[in-house]
Amino acid sequence: MSTLVAAESIAPAPPKLLFAQIKRLTDLLSDEYAVGYPEAMLVQTLKLDAGDEIVLAVFTIEGFGGGNNHKQYLAVFSPAMKEKRKQHFTLIAVTPIAGKGWRAIRNLNARVSRNIKTGDMAIAIDALEVGADDAPNFPSKAVTINLSLQNGRLLEK
Asked: N or C: which end of the chain has fewer CB within 10 A?
């Protein structure tokens, strides 16, 4: 008997408060040259069992070291309503997930399941990986990134 419960995807417009959280993460993860690329942000809200939700955001930071490079990061948030009905997004975890010469996430259509006994989540994200004959910014090999969210940490399997 499985204890995993699949998540249902919800596709709302990304709220301004989420953009503000991503901006703060960008500032923390950047060096003195790198900047965020908010137009490339991908956001997906997933409804879990028992009415819980998580929000996944893939965001890009480019220009590290003043060069022509970039990284994509995956951040996982818990949305909540604060007093006076203001929405808030609490960061659960963040990790580098793609970048120049490695792989790219073009569309966010994640699949998430949660172990109802432990609360651990399995997250699967489709991506493109740089193959042997690919230029660094043009990955072509379809892959699935499998991550585990356990105790507030994202781990790639």
From this structure: N
